[in-house]
Amino acid sequence: MELLETVPDSLSTEELATVDAWWRAANYLTIGQIYLQDDALLQRPLRPSDVKPRLLGHWGTSTGLSFVYAHVSRLIRHTGQQTLYLAGPGHGGPALVAASWLEGTYAECFPAVTRDADGMRRLFRQFSSPGGIPSHASVTTPGSIHEGGELGYVLVHAFGAVMDNPDLLAVAVVGDGEAETAPLEGAWKGISFLNPARDGAVLPVLDLNGYKISGPTVLARKDPVLVRSLLEGHGYHVLEVTGEDLPGMHHRFAAALAEAHRRIRAVQRAARSGQAPEGVPAWPVIVLRSPKGWTGPSVVDGVQVEDTWRAHQVPLSGVEENPEHLRLLEEWMRSYRPEELFDDRGRPTALVRANDPEGALRMSATPHANGGLLTRDLVLPSPGDYAVDVPRPGATRAESTQRLGEYLRDVYRANPETFRLFCPDETSSNRLGAVFEASDRAWMEATVPGDVGLSASGRVLEVLSEHNCHGWLEGYTLTGRHGLFATYEAFAMVSASQTVQHGKWLEEAEHLPWRAPVPSLNVLLTSTAWRNDHNGFSHQGPGLIQTALTQRSGISRIYLPPDANCLLEVADHCLRTRSRINLVVIDKQPQLQYLSAAEAADHVARGAGTWEWAGTDDGSADPDVVLACAGDVVTMETVAAARILAQRLPQLRVRVVNVVDLMRLHRPADHPHGVDEFTFRELFTDHVDVVFAFHGFPGAVHQLVHGRPRADRFHVRGFIEEGTTTTPFDMTVRNKVSRYDLVVDALNNAGRLPVGAGDLRRWCRAQLERHRAHVVEHLEDMPEVRDWVLD
């Protein structure tokens, strides 16, 4: 077939036959996955034993997903358009599995599930079954990057996928139940950041089938004029297709899809030739109104099922026990005329296969859905080129993230099409503003005098939505590019569920040899709990660390660099990794610097190490107590505590251990970054008590050291939900992790106590009382704390 600029409006008689046959075949396979374990081709009357003992799945949305898929395949055959299909109603998973089986991709990925009768039987038996596949579009679904089990993210993933991907069209089917979620409501704004001169296009298809699990959906019950106005208000050109009549719906949808593609190509041609008007193009959106459970059982036991919420999951229940329901199931499946769709060996007939694009143009085989195949390594500058000069530990201050911003600026310059920063309106606030020397903020809306750093050519993504930023980065990395999501620590919890879902995707992908490793999801948490003293308690929460610790299979990595040079080394490492969630936590405020560039490189490579210069442990014997720390503010408090002990109780042997890679605390059996027993003992001994100052919730460290020698000797101080609008040091006092608290803890847990320990305890408690009075009177910390450096 000669490739065309776009697809013809009207379906020929032959095309109508093949599109409809493909759709019927997909519907047949979808029903089979939900219901059958045997007799896949209905070669005899169905028996109760042919039906699965547990009926699981979602029929109601699947038929609409397959309908759209069939027509988009026709568009691809005519135009050669590279297309990524994203199913927002993710529990329509059997429709996407059916599509990949029909296109032959499923057998390529899972050779045991052949494209014949035996393979069809395997396909049916594995669906929502032990040892099989889940009911939603997931990592096991060829052609999918969108984990459909949690609703709301289809558009953000689609927009992320097409950024810097000019030849890609992402068709994003938005379920009308999904359209009620907060992430999806915000996601429509993606076109305000999409530049058609260098980005691909997103075609949303709002699938209004009327119902969710047990009731109607909001948009389906609204006046269609209001729905059109809503979408037009977002800036879209609305195309509507309504009905259930066949073949009329085929003709109407084909015409709408052709018009949508023409509009997309016109927008792109104008932008790429320099003739586009300023502002946001009127990108198309299709509103598809069709019945829930379209073509399924209309009435069951005298109750309306099709076009109601009853079609959402399994329209016919109790099929094994109810002969009438078994008869209805067979009648329903035979209504698709399977003898026209599959030959006597169970293979799709030529009529069905005629609708499939070829090779990598099949949506289930597109390399954009297996982004590791397209990934190119970043060109990265040397972290040492951005290092802070550290003449001696703890004597100078710097904004650590400011140095990271300079590093990322040059990552942008060296990788103009494969790296982006995503941040909810906080790039400058988080001291990463140097990136604006390399790129403006992406912005397609109007600008006014006084705007700074906004342009259509910008590639820094800022929108005040953690969901959008996180989701854009996911779509960007899953299609093979690299990036970083930077946000305030407390508000990373807004998108924490996305982090969890992405981790699950990566975990399962590791077990699929055909899934190529993708760039890691890199998350920078700054404006942290310990220094959000002016915003107060609402901005004080290190919860994402705890969330990341729950990920299994070693997917998550958590880094707590204590200073700028360690941060640079950590960032360089993270941007080189694949298929990981890298969580990096450090504050943006000026902070003490400890390690030179070379020392930082060694420290980060080790992940944890003893800071001999900070303690009084000469290595000749075990220390009396170990002071450990992980996190920038608590590291400063630990070093200060060690210095107090050295000055006031020099006879006490104190070892200071800093942990930058939190997962080093795990046992090797529990995490690939866990240190071996020998190294753990070198750091912490196997019997000396450890006072551990931690950035996050104390329970995290107890979880990590579980199974280590005498794990009960670890006494952890960290964030205990004590926060308010107060001074920086008062935050540490309130959470009992201040230098004075740590000194008292060290004395309480040391193996031996020299003379003078009691006096030092009393002095520390007096200092804490003095602090409390000082901050109330002077509204700032005591000078000896505020201006403290390591002398």
From TrEMBL:
**Record keywords, A-Z:** Lyase, Thiamine pyrophosphate
Record Pfam families: XFP (PF03894), XFP_C (PF09363), XFP_N (PF09364)
Q: Which GO terms describe its molecular function?
A: fructose-6-phosphate phosphoketolase activity; magnesium ion binding; phosphoketolase activity
> What cofactors does the UniProt entry give for this protein?
thiamine diphosphate
The record's top EC class is lyase
Q: Give the SUPFAM superfamilies listed for this entry.
A: Thiamin diphosphate-binding fold (THDP-binding)
Q: What are the residue boundaries of the Xylulose 5-phosphate/Fructose 6-phosphate phosphoketolase C-terminal domain, all occurrences included?
A: 588-789
Record carries keyword Membrane:
no
Q: Which residues form the signal peptide?
A: none
EC nos: 4.1.2.22, 4.1.2.9
Gene Ontology biological process: carbohydrate metabolic process
Task: Give every Xylulose 5-phosphate/Fructose 6-phosphate phosphoketolase N-terminal domain span.
Answer: 12-373
Keyword hit for Lyase: yes
User: Known NCBIfam families for this protein?
Assistant: PRK05261.1-4
- Into which family does the record put it? Belongs to the XFP family.
Q: What is this protein called?
A: Xylulose-5-phosphate/fructose-6-phosphate phosphoketolase
Name the source organism: Kineococcus aurantiacus
